[in-house]
Amino acid sequence: MPATIAAIDVGSNAIRLAIATVDATGQYQVVHNAREAVRLGHDVFATGRISDVTIKAALEAFRRFREQLSKYSVTRFKAVATSALREAENGEAFVALVLKRHRIPISVIGPEEEARLVHLAVKERIQLNGRIALLVDIGGGSVEISLGNKSGILSTQSYAMGSVRLLRILNQRRLTRSRFNQLVSRYVDVTNRRLQKELGGQKIEMCIGTGGSIESIGEIRRDLFKKRSSAKITTIELASVSRKLQALTVEERIQRFHLRPDRADVISPAAVVLQNILRQARVREILIPGVGVKDGLLSEIVWEILYRGKHLDRDQVMNSAFQFGRKYAFDEKHGIVVSRLALQIFDQTRHIHGLNGESRMLLEVAALLHDVGQYVGVSNHHKHTFYLLQAGPIIGLSPSQIELMANVARYHRKSPPRLVHESFASLSPKQRKVVSTLASILRVADAIDRQHADCVQSVNLTFKRQRVTLRLRGGGDLLLEKWALAKRSELFEKFFGKVVIEEPPVRRPAGPRRLA
Predict the structure, then answer these.
(1) If you compute the radius of gyration of the chain from its CA atoms, what whole number of angstroms results?
(2) Contact, 361 vs 343, CB < 8 A?
(3) Are the C-beta atoms of residues 473 and 459 closer than 8 Å to each other?
(4) Do residues 144 and 116 touch, judged by C-beta distance below 8 A?
(5) Element (H, E) at 496
(6) H or E element: which one contains 209?
(7) Three-state DSSP class for residue 497
(8) How far is CA 255 from the centre of its chain?
């Protein structure tokens, strides 16, 4: 399976390319790195649009990237864009132009997906094990602050205080050093309050920093303090680095620390942000693994090559789903039971519905979270569930996947899917069929756990002459479960055949024994 792959990260401060070779075991080796100093964020954060001059420079950068893709015979690549293109009024037109001119499709991703990719790259370098890690990713347009462990991101927040954006504020308002530090401190204070809420009683056990500015800060620390490595920095060392950076002009930083011009101006705001975050989080040092979005993309491509048809990050998706459910005080035990039963039915009906692993994952999440709307109100909670799931991210699922999953959860009770429902009607015919099929399975699984008591351990299905026989295995007579199942099986019958609920055989009392 040897292959050559590539990843492109369209950031606010620069556009980056990484090309790697992948061996038969799935190990990859980066063979080419390129960085184009095209600052999309400079225009967008000032005017809301990418200027014609910047578009021209960006197109030239992508032309060179296309040449490198051809030179290295790249067989598979991905390109993603972050905050600058998310906010640009002409972002869609820019993406279309790059595709037309250079055949490079760009996906504009949200902050949750950005955080997921960074976490994916980080856990390749750092053993998180069972520890709670604070991940700080400082980009040009935004700062992503996430809590994560080995399984995935627990929560993430994006803040509009990236280094390019803050540099503009600093220059525009002509702030003094103390006033600028005060402004950043206020921003970070908000993040701290949110962090504490997410953490509850948990303790941050390590802090990890990513992004070009943080990597440069690590290199400055290594040179200033005569260290062997740039892979970490303590809070005391960071305070010293930050003071030195603020005391120097951009030209002096270039000369003193051998920084690129497009790094020398933004590194000081980044240092101030990082210093405030570490102080609020009460950590003593930050690890700097030297990875970013493009490294996460490479890992993702490798996984897709190795495990075609499998979802890349099931642990991440389920981790996020549980975190989401707990946020709304859901009945976790019931969600787990319904999810287990729904997957049993999905797997036994696969020869009929023909749906793939992605649909299975969407059903699993929808089943787990189908009742979260009860946090808003029990009446019409299926609709509340839909709105909550649609609005709140499940990290690891794309917006279109979340839309499908939210629709599946919405139809776990009451009305079946109908075209008069706006959210359902907006889906493609193929998507509507997927939603209806999965919802029919979810209705049956939910009915089987009618009492929220985990009475049914398994459900077995057999098919014969347009009929499907369901055999429930569990404790007690299961009368309520069978009654609810018979009442809620109409949609299921539309796809799988007439439902027959198997009754256990009647045991007749033994007759009198005959004497020999």
Answers:
(1) 27
(2) no
(3) yes
(4) no
(5) helix 490-496
(6) strand 206-210
(7) coil
(8) 40
Q: What's the whole-model pTM score?
A: 0.78
Strands of 450-492 (E only): list them.
Answer: 456-464, 467-474
Residues present in the chain in total: 516
Strand partners, 148: 133, 153
Query: Cβ neighbours of residue 70 under 8 Å, at least 6 residues apart?
Result: none
DSSP label at residue 411: T
| Token output for 478 | 């299961």
Tokens 């994916």, residue located: 120
Residue found by looking up tokens 């690890």 in the block: 287
**What is the biggest distance separating any 2 CA atoms in the chain, rounded to whole angstroms?**
113
List the one residue out of 196, 222, 189, 182 whose CA is nearest residue 134. 196
Dihedral sign, Cα of residue 301, residue 302, residue 308, residue 310:
negative
- 255 neighbors 247 (Cβ within 8 angstroms): no
Closest to 123 in 3D by CA, of 291, 279, 242, 334: 291
Phi and psi dihedrals of 59, rounded to 5?
A: -60, -35
**Nearest Cα to 284, choosing from 238, 231, 245?**
238
CA 203 from centre of chain:
23
Distance separating alpha carbons of residues 97 and 55, to the nearest angstrom = 9
Residue entry with tokens 């910047």: 54
Three-state DSSP class for 270? Answer: helix
Query: Number of C-alpha atoms within 13 angstroms, CB side, residue 170?
Result: 23
Query: How buried is residue 117: exposed, middle or buried, by Cβ count under 10 Å (0-12/13-18/19+)?
Result: buried
Torsion of CA 59, 64, 68, 71, to 10 degrees: 120
- Beta strands 76-81; 107-108: pairing state: parallel
Would you write out the chain's pLDDT as a tens digit for each of its 516 residues? 579 999 999 999 999 999 999 998 889 999 999 999 999 999 999 899 999 999 999 999 999 999 999 999 999 999 999 999 999 999 999 999 999 999 999 999 988 899 999 999 998 899 888 788 999 999 988 888 888 888 888 888 888 878 888 787 777 777 676 777 777 777 677 666 766 776 666 688 899 999 999 999 999 999 999 999 999 999 999 999 999 998 999 999 999 999 999 899 889 989 988 988 888 888 899 999 999 999 999 999 998 888 765 555 788 899 899 989 998 999 999 999 999 999 999 999 999 999 988 899 999 999 999 999 999 998 899 999 999 999 888 988 888 899 999 999 999 999 999 999 999 999 999 999 999 999 999 999 999 998 888 888 899 999 988 899 999 888 777 888 888 888 889 999 999 999 888 765 444 455 555 544
